[in-house]
Amino acid sequence: MRSKGTAILGTLAALPLVFSQVAFAQGAPADASGLLTGPAPVARHWSKNPYPDSIPEGASYYIVVRGDTLWDISARFLKNPYLWPQIWDQNKYIKDAHWIYPGDPILLPNVSLVSDRAGEAGALGTEEGAGEGLPGEGLAGVGEAGAVLSPVTEQVTIQCAPYIATQAEDKSLRIIGTEEGTDKNAYADRDILYLNKGTNAGIKAGDVFSFQQATYDVKHPVSGKTLGTKIEPTGWGRVILVQENSATLMVEQACADIHIGDYLKTFEKANVPLLLKRPHADRLTPPSGKTQGYIVDQAGDATIAAEGNIVIIDVGTEAGVAPGNVFSVSRVIYPSVPTPRNVVGEIAVILAYEKTSVAKVIYSKDAVMNGDQIELR
To answer: Among 153, 168, 167, 181, which Cα is nearest to 299's?
Structure first.
């Protein structure tokens, strides 16, 4: 997901309202912040999102207006813009977090309980009403006394995480050489690279691009179906000089060895999701009945993972998955007989694509393996 600075995260489609005013049935009046309380029907309006027809009784909600983004809505009501994935998770009708439309209703459960310091180390949700509800329900940092939010991982890990491309990516912009000629065959931070396009392709000084290597086709460990091509980011860099048919770029961050032939894409800064600290799932944790899937691949050439490692799962935004979601990881030791599942760990989503997601192992009591089952907590 791209950063607010590049106007990508939660970008609102700048489209006119179908009606000059959006009318809603009488419910609890909006407070000073613009927050409303159901029940209320949702007025008909133009939107690409299949928005709900009504707001449940007692639910807190906000109506999108022109200029809104999920980032800004999170900053306004949750006092922390980095909690936008939790808002998206509560509004699964929004298929792509980049696009919300005037008139769309945004459900915000228990937003009044969020501390102004949400997301800071040691921040507590201790305002009036904290502690109500069941543990683990609602937004991160909401509804639990003493709730502490912490980042899933650091920024570089997310930017360097591999992913599965389910469709062919544009590989026309490539690295074709280096300032050092043939003296080196792998490149890293501060190295100077040459690209095969320049002003003829709209490239300009200051543009930032990420480098990618396509590795192999990923097959589902259970079904055997090909899911797509595994892409491994090797770093990113900034253009410092442009000519008509070429450009010069300096590497700002290397994730792995960068090579001639790596292809480039416009750099997209992903935001770090925050997690609510709570007890990990174990053998006594009952199944949630929520979204299920499998671990299908891992960073590098690994086949087993432990805490801190990166894995790829076979569910994405079309299944309602969002950054910050936590899944339990389990396997059945004796699949041929009806034996209980063995919970071996937990993973937290750091990047969500349409059909797959990238996650970090945040807890493991045994090796996490390709083919292990996952279930949304």
So the answer is: 153
